[in-house]
Amino acid sequence: MTAVLEKPETPHSAEPNRGPQLPDASVLEDRTPEWIRATPTSALFVLLTGTVFIWLVYQPLWHTDLWDHLNYGQDIIETRRVSDTEPLLHLCRGVRMINIPWLAQLGMAAINNRFGLTGLQFSYGLVIAMCLAVIAWRSVRTSHSAIGGFIACAVFLKINLNQLLVIRPQLVGVLFYCIVVAWMFGRQKHSKRSWIAMPLMYVLWANTHGSFSMGLMLMGLAGVGRFGDVLVISKSLRVALLDRELHGTILLTQLCAAAVLLNPAGFAVYPEVFNVVGNPNIGSMYEWDALTWRSAQGQAAAAAALLACMAILLSPRRKHCGEILAFVFTGLLAMWSGRMLNWWAPIAGIVIGTHLIAVIRKSTPWLRNPRPGKRTGLWTLVNLGLVLILFAFTSLGGQVLQGRVSNAQQLVSKETPLATVSFLNSAERLPRGISFVPAEWAGFVMNRGPESVAPMVNLHVHLIPEQVWNHYLRLMNGSSDWSRLMDQYGINMAVVDKDRQPELTKRIRESVDWTAQYEDRQAVVFFRNKEI
User: Which one has a higher pLDDT value, 12 or 299?
Assistant: First the structure.
């Protein structure tokens, strides 16, 4: 008898064929590249930063600097060149112009031409969100605590919010500066990535905004600080001078300084930075005033400085000379001018977030041994999903995904003279020659109004001859010689802000030589009865 051996039936052999099976989560995780995996904390940061981003993209477009930069950017697009003299104002023809932020202006004008004002809002919110991401990343890496990152971002926004409300090329400079701050607070300052990325960033920075000088200054302070740290520890001048990291910082700073020269003006960008800051016309701009206790900015900065000093004194962390030097030096600059808060706020935020967590950790057991969340590809997908959801909530998202175009009146600030420009566009004939228009409105009038309107000045005050600017200030304040100045410049039309220029409004009303052709709650447009 031949025995027939049969394969025993397994418990699963009777089950129907289920087809290909999906791999479990562990298999998916193993196949995800390490560099792209994210943590649960990162999703929380994306959500919180995204919330701030959504709030920012719905902020109205300010009526001042933005429109001047758009005008210069549009001029670059139309002429296909970066002008070396002032191209827009008749009273500034021939005035030498080194337009450092030409690339940012070009980008702003291109975004406006392609996507409209919603594109500008989106770009504005995105740049600030990227600043927060850089600050949060460095603070978390330095303090080993997500709470430290939240504190740093909150301090940065609280101190610098007023400076961030206006769309201008400076915002891109703040982003690059935050990257340099993160580099300075990091331990690996001279990786291969730094030697490539930093000089390339400075090439963009030098064509975007003059604040590249602040970045170079910060790198210099990092070098001085490294020298001080080694000197304190080694107590040897020779050891400090021969330190390899000090030499690397000096060389990288020199390389970045050389990269700045890759711009249309070449070396001239360096003196131009100081020419702008030292221009006498700048003194009349209130945003360049020194910080005072009476201002909300001054109070926020003082509170942050006090908190930072307390945290530094009580912190068990080691204090690095470069960080303290940068904190003090940029703080003094901020006291000199509120505009300099841009360069102190990122440093103050990281210093407070890092040292305050160290102080709290001494008495809080659960903060002493932080356990970072596991990095998985799943959280990367969650982050991507959050980004897509946030994009859909923006005005640009609604425009791209649904074709919903927002009304311009809903996108600009209430101070924007929309009705006045509408009148100018509808007028059959406007007086010829130079027009008196408030500098804050000049950019918008030139951008959205008739081409025949030629404002006396705009907000690029460093390009305006000092005498012209002083005469403009006298007119704005309604001085007794206003009529003579109007005659001197051949001004036949005056657009007057009723709230900011009440004296000039009153004087022109009382004059028999002028007649109000249009008036609303905001402005009055006067024509001269007999043109000059």
Answer: 299
